[in-house]
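Q: Predict the bound structure with zinc ion.
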Amino acid sequence: MSNFWKALKRAARATVDSLGPGQYTVEAKKVTCPHCGHQEFAEGSAQLNTTGMTFIGLDWANKSAYTLLCSKCGHIEWFMQKPERL
Ligand SMILES: [Zn+2]
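A: Predicted complex:
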Protein backbone atom coordinates (compact mmCIF):
# COMPACT_ATOMS: atom_id res chain seq x y z
CA MET A 1 0.00 0.00 0.00
CA SER A 2 2.77 2.45 0.84
CA ASN A 3 4.42 1.98 -2.55
CA PHE A 4 1.09 2.57 -4.25
CA TRP A 5 0.58 5.72 -2.22
CA LYS A 6 4.03 7.04 -3.10
CA ALA A 7 3.50 6.30 -6.78
CA LEU A 8 0.18 8.07 -6.75
CA LYS A 9 1.62 11.06 -4.96
CA ARG A 10 4.34 11.28 -7.59
CA ALA A 11 1.70 11.16 -10.30
CA ALA A 12 -0.44 13.86 -8.73
CA ARG A 13 0.04 17.41 -9.85
CA ALA A 14 2.61 19.14 -7.73
CA THR A 15 0.40 22.08 -6.74
CA VAL A 16 -2.33 19.77 -5.52
CA ASP A 17 0.03 17.27 -3.97
CA SER A 18 1.66 19.92 -1.80
CA LEU A 19 -1.64 20.50 -0.02
CA GLY A 20 -1.93 16.94 1.24
CA PRO A 21 -5.22 15.11 1.82
CA GLY A 22 -8.26 17.26 2.50
CA GLN A 23 -12.05 17.27 2.55
CA TYR A 24 -14.04 17.97 -0.59
CA THR A 25 -17.55 18.72 -1.74
CA VAL A 26 -19.20 18.06 -5.10
CA GLU A 27 -22.56 19.69 -5.84
CA ALA A 28 -22.57 21.02 -2.27
CA LYS A 29 -22.43 17.49 -0.87
CA LYS A 30 -19.44 16.37 1.16
CA VAL A 31 -17.54 13.56 -0.47
CA THR A 32 -17.43 10.43 1.70
CA CYS A 33 -15.61 7.24 0.80
CA PRO A 34 -18.26 4.61 -0.07
CA HIS A 35 -15.97 1.85 1.14
CA CYS A 36 -14.71 2.99 4.55
CA GLY A 37 -16.63 6.20 5.23
CA HIS A 38 -13.50 8.35 5.52
CA GLN A 39 -13.79 11.98 4.40
CA GLU A 40 -10.19 12.93 3.58
CA PHE A 41 -8.96 12.54 0.04
CA ALA A 42 -5.96 13.34 -2.09
CA GLU A 43 -6.97 15.13 -5.27
CA GLY A 44 -5.68 14.18 -8.67
CA SER A 45 -6.67 14.22 -12.30
CA ALA A 46 -6.48 11.91 -15.27
CA GLN A 47 -6.56 12.58 -18.97
CA LEU A 48 -9.46 10.80 -20.65
CA ASN A 49 -8.49 11.34 -24.27
CA THR A 50 -6.62 8.10 -24.56
CA THR A 51 -7.12 5.42 -27.16
CA GLY A 52 -8.73 3.16 -24.61
CA MET A 53 -11.28 5.71 -23.50
CA THR A 54 -12.17 6.55 -27.09
CA PHE A 55 -12.68 2.89 -27.77
CA ILE A 56 -15.26 2.52 -24.99
CA GLY A 57 -17.15 5.60 -26.14
CA LEU A 58 -15.95 8.28 -23.77
CA ASP A 59 -14.26 10.47 -26.34
CA TRP A 60 -17.11 12.98 -25.98
CA ALA A 61 -15.46 13.83 -22.69
CA ASN A 62 -12.02 14.33 -24.23
CA LYS A 63 -11.00 16.19 -21.11
CA SER A 64 -9.62 15.59 -17.71
CA ALA A 65 -11.43 13.68 -15.02
CA TYR A 66 -10.86 14.50 -11.40
CA THR A 67 -9.98 11.80 -8.96
CA LEU A 68 -10.21 11.75 -5.19
CA LEU A 69 -8.14 9.06 -3.51
CA CYS A 70 -9.34 8.05 -0.05
CA SER A 71 -6.39 8.68 2.26
CA LYS A 72 -7.47 5.79 4.48
CA CYS A 73 -8.35 2.83 2.26
CA GLY A 74 -7.16 3.95 -1.19
CA HIS A 75 -10.55 3.88 -2.92
CA ILE A 76 -10.65 6.25 -5.89
CA GLU A 77 -13.72 8.30 -6.72
CA TRP A 78 -13.98 9.81 -10.22
CA PHE A 79 -15.69 13.10 -11.05
CA MET A 80 -16.18 14.98 -14.30
CA GLN A 81 -16.33 18.27 -12.44
CA LYS A 82 -13.70 19.65 -10.15
CA PRO A 83 -14.40 18.87 -6.49
CA GLU A 84 -14.22 21.87 -4.19
CA ARG A 85 -11.72 21.61 -1.41
CA LEU A 86 -13.06 22.69 2.00
ZN1 LIG B 1 -11.92 4.79 2.06
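A: The mean pLDDT is 80.
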